[in-house]
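Quick illustration for those who missed Monday's session on complexes.
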Amino acid sequence: MTKVYEKSPAFFETFDRKPGQQHTTHYCPGCGHGTLNKIMADLVAELGIQDQTIYVGPVGCGVFIYYYFEGACASAAHGRASAVATGISRSNPDGIVVSYQGDGDLAAIGTGNAIHAANRGENMIVFFVNNNLYGMTGGQMAPTTLLEQKTSTSPYGRSEINDGYPLRMSEMMAGLEAPTLVARVGVNNPKNIRQAVKVIRKGLEIQRDKKGYVFIEVMSQCPTNWKKDPVEACEWIDDVVCKQYPLGVFKDLTDERQAQRRPRREVEFAAVAKQLGLRGDDDTGLDKMTLPQPEMRFKFAGFGGQGVLSLGLMVAQMATERNMEVTWLPSYGPEMRGGVANSSVVIGENPIGTPVVDVPDVLVALNRPSMDKLSPLVKEDGLIVYNSSLIDQIPADLKGKVCPLPATTLAAEAGTVKAANVVVLGFVARMTGIFTLAELEEFLCETFKKPALQEINLKAVAAGWNAAEAFI
Ligand code: SF4
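Prediction with iron/sulfur cluster bound:
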């Protein structure tokens, strides 16, 4: 009889990451991540813990797990998944917290976070996907890279003199007192997959029973960056990788450990705000802004380094000061492979439904790719401001008011090209009427304390403000 395999109910029915690609993941063919994701989803469904499970995703090839697992998901900054998972675990003592990280993320950038979460014995299961290099960013050497292994940043092979030795995270974690279960498994052949299923099931059961910290290192093939076909990559794990990273269970205290429950500490926002030097109250005493419509949706886009995230933040901060409802949503890093960085800001008189800005009222495009990609999305009566110092060609048939602003040139005249975002701030404020020049100047003086920086930014904002004259 033919056995029919069905997709785990712990996965979404369709993966809505990209139109036309809704039944496959983004992983490369033969990649170990896909196999691991399937094992996790099958076991979460089998154990009946889907409603309790909270996934914390990394930066790296595992970044898109929120498109695949139907459950609560959070994305952590690079290396910080164990720290974010700690917060989630402490504030959701009934949840089952799954932290998912690669070797660049956990064993390099976030080593400290990972070790201390383990040492505290947090209630969480950590999947440490080890493919010996940074996969998503192009195969750079990681602390886990094998000696003599060639990567894009070790073209002559890793050397112990230069780069140290491959880091055995599982052995290190097993040396700590707190972890309950530490194991290394493989997903490269049926025998290893069967063993991985057993260990992962146990790890999830430990979480269900609140018995503390679990660390499961998963030796995972990366055919793309290893420059091998999928079969060769699977064989290479057995023949070479596992000599350095032997599979096995390094520590298992499941039977001895009791359930540990940390009391959920309620935290007063005002106390946290005080600790961080922020205002604890909601009302600044300033009048609300007058918007041309009840809600305004902005998109600020450009290359990383052009200050588009801080431009959005400045607008958001000023609106917050004026007691408006505000969201600021930055987008950069893995979402942006080869694309543009951007920040979305929504300012409203009423609570905001979503911080995502698909159809902007105002678009600022500081480089050509962002102009090409985002300008056709702007509303019919919207505003498009583009950096004419860098963009010499714009898409045809754009809707809305299209304003060329030589932001880089005006910023250079003010003292530094880095102030191009402040030039834009002045321009957009005047075009939309959301802030006065005096309000902008006051904000910049509070933000930039050094006199030299203050002078440049005041000149830059005035240049943008004056440039708007021609379009009003
Ligand atoms: S780059 Fe490597 S780890 Fe990343 S998805 Fe492709 S095969 Fe998998």
